[in-house]
Structures are given as structure tokens and as C-alpha cells.
Amino acid sequence: MITAVRRAWSSFVVKHPELSKFLVFFLISNGITVLQLALMPIFRWAFDTFTGLVGVNFQVLQVGSQVDGSPYFMFDYAAGPLPAGGGGLAYFLAVQITLLIAQVINFFLQRSITFKSNTSVWVAAFWYALAYVAITFIAAAAQGFYKAPIYHLLMTDWGWGTTGEVIADVLTMIINSAISFWVFYPIFKLIFRQVPEQEPAATDAR
User: Fold this and answer.
1) Residue 5 domain-assigned?
2) Is position 159 within any domain?
3) pLDDT tens, 142-166?
4) For residue 17, what are the contacts with CB-CB under 8 A and spacing of at least 6?
5) Structural domain span for residue 92
6) Which of 14, 51, 72, 150 has its CB surrounded by the most CB atoms within 10 Å?
7) Cα separation, 27 vs 6, whole angstroms
8) Quick check: 124 and 111 in contact, CB under 8 A?
9) 144 vs 179: CA distance, rounded Å
10) Among its keywords, does the record have Transmembrane (predicted)?
């Protein structure tokens, strides 16, 4: 059974090389998303329980104003527990540490399994780090549109309290992961290249 599956997959890879890469990328990305869904609530709980960082305001990089005239921050983590506050520095660190761990693992898995790249790991890591920083800013800016409404809806409007907070954690992390998924694939195709191996020069027979 396993041999037949391997044979079928090998045939599929030969016939559809790009599609097969995308499918492997999709599977690994979903596994990484599951890891993020497990880690993020743990980090949030740890920061909330053992530190006072939820009460530390972290609102930086104002990029305009909301419809009501209030400032719009790229990283908007107002002090105080959700939904009244924004989770403070505790929420920010929980999100960023989770993303960092997940993306480091993702880097090595995608490089070696999906794209089987044989170019310099250090060059790829450099461009990956730049892409990671850029996507972090993009995802943070987008989060301002959906984070507060989701937590307010589930925790307050629907009255789900702590359960709503956990579900909101999951939803926000899924949205973050979806943004990373669609942005990273074309970037990976550029930085995880396969260079043909050079064959050793033949020596003349004497």
C-alpha cells in the first residue's frame, strides 16, 4: 500500500512538478498553522499569569486615523485585557514569539522538503528574514481591522467570555497564517532555488 502511494506520488511529481510543490507547501503550512494555534494561547496564558505585561501599553507606528478620528496604529495593543483593552505588550509578545518559532521551523521544512533547495542557506535565510519582517508589518496593519471586532463579538456581543476569547485567538491566528501563506509561496520560489549540480570534468585517458 505504502509502495503504491509512493509510486503514484512520484508519477504525479513528474507530471505536475509545480502543483506537487504547492500541495506539499500547503500541507506543511497547515501543520505550521496547527503549531501556531497550540502555541499562541500558551504564550498568552503565561504572559498574563506570570507577568504584568498585559497592563503595558504597546501602540506604535501610527499610520493614520480611524473613521471616528482615533489614531490607527500598525501595532495596536492597548493596555488591558481583551476585549476592553488590546491585550497590551503580553498579547504582542505572544503573537510575535509564536510567529517567530513557527517561521523558523517553516523555513527549514519548506527549503529541504518542498523546494529541495541546494543554494546557500545563509543567503536564503537573509532574504527570508527580510520577507518575514515585511509580512509582519503587513499582517499587523491588517490586524487593526479585524482583531478588536472579533474579540468584542465573541466575548461581549455573544457573551461567550473566556471561550469566546480562545476562539478569537484561533481566528486571529488563522487569518495571520492565511496572509503569510499566500505571500510566502512566491517568495519561497525565488529564494529556494535548485541549481544544477556540476559534473566533475572528465580526465583524458593517457
Assistant:
1) no
2) yes
3) 877 788 888 888 998 898 888 888 8
4) none
5) 18-191
6) 150
7) 16
8) yes
9) 14
10) yes
